[in-house]
Amino acid sequence: MKKLILFTLISLFAVSFTANAQNTYGEPEKIVVNKNDLTPSQIAKIESDAKIAQLEKKLETYGNWVGVGGEIGSAVKEGLNAVVDVADKFGNTNVGRFTLIMVAWKVIGKDAVRIVLGLLFILIFTIFTFRSYRQNFTTRKISLKSNGLKFWLPKEYTLVEPETYDGYQFVKFLYLLMIMGSFGITYAIMFA
């Protein structure tokens, strides 16, 4: 406990000396004067000097920023030029082309496969659905007799009417729902 008290007293003693130390850094000494004690020309001069000092400080700061910005811009430009040159040389080699293809596949490969699979699904489903619909719900011409290689002879056809039954219109509606569902599934394959 005695050591703590002694340490505290020594610290306070050291701080009191540093607080009373004279200005040794070359800064001008300040004098505080009431504004009422100065003439208007002195006040104007002091205010203009303060504004000029403030502007000079801003200009110095902005100048430093411009210098740093120019240096950063030059460094970025040189770095990007180096990257472009190296990438161009690398891209013209067989290994570079393969690498570019692999990078492109990594970036868009999954999406490209999904889009191709979605389009393939909708194409196959639509073809089978429309063929089934045409066979079951439209009037068709069926050839009764084939003439073989004698294509100039007239062929005999018969018309086949679709069968009507209870729920005939409901089945047509189900085909419509199947097509709409296939578009939903295709969307899910491609974009989900």
Structure description:
This protein has 192 residues and is mostly helical. It has two domains: 33-92; 109-191, no CATH class. It contains four helices and two strands. It has helices at 2-19, 40-91, 94-137, 168-191, and strands at residues 140-145, 156-160. A two-stranded antiparallel sheet has the order 1-2. The longest helix has 52 residues, at 40-91. The radius of gyration is 45 Å and the shape is elongated.
Defining traits:
mainly alpha, 2 domains, 2 strands, 192 residues, two-stranded antiparallel ribbon, 72% helix, elongated, single chain, 6% strand
Question: Topology, please?
Answer:
Elements: H1 2-19, H2 40-91, H3 94-137, E1 140-145, E2 156-160, H4 168-191
Antiparallel strand pairs: 1-2
Give the structure's gist in a few sentences.
The chain is mainly alpha-helical.
Helix content: over 70%
Helical stretch count?
Answer: 4
Tally of structural domains: 2
Report strand order across the widest sheet: 1-2
The biggest beta sheet is recorded as: 2 strands, antiparallel
- The fraction of residues assigned to DSSP E strands is 5-15%
What's the overall average pLDDT, rounded? 82
The global form is elongated
Q: H/E series, N to C?
A: HHHEEH
Tell me the number of strands: 2
Unreliable parts: none
